[in-house]
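Standup notes, protein team

Yesterday: finished cleaning the Roseicyclus elongatus DSM 19469 set.
Today: Guanidinium exporter structure.
Blockers: none.

Input for Guanidinium exporter:
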Amino acid sequence: MAWILVTVAGLLEIVWATAMKQSDGFTRLWPSVITIVTMLGSFGLLSIAMRSLPLGTAYMVWVGIGAVGAFIAGIILYGEALNPMRIAAAALIVLGMALMKLSTQGPVA
């Protein structure tokens, strides 16, 4: 259950980061409201997941989902650059999350 909570918290991080961009520095009401509400939800779910997951693992997976998701959202919604170096950077984040998650499951047989 904790992994589901971290995943949902990470997805909410993508929403709040995207809404924050759209809030134009918190000068637009509804994107600002969406930012704050989803941020609180994201932090809340992460804090519940941290009751049973190691701090570093939970935080890294949460940040990784948010970072890679925001990277993808930026490409889709804002036409941000997509080049081999940015793809490699995102892939390294995903690899790091996978290794961190595997490291919490004990030794690999």
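Follow-up from PR in the comments: The chain has a mean pLDDT of 94.
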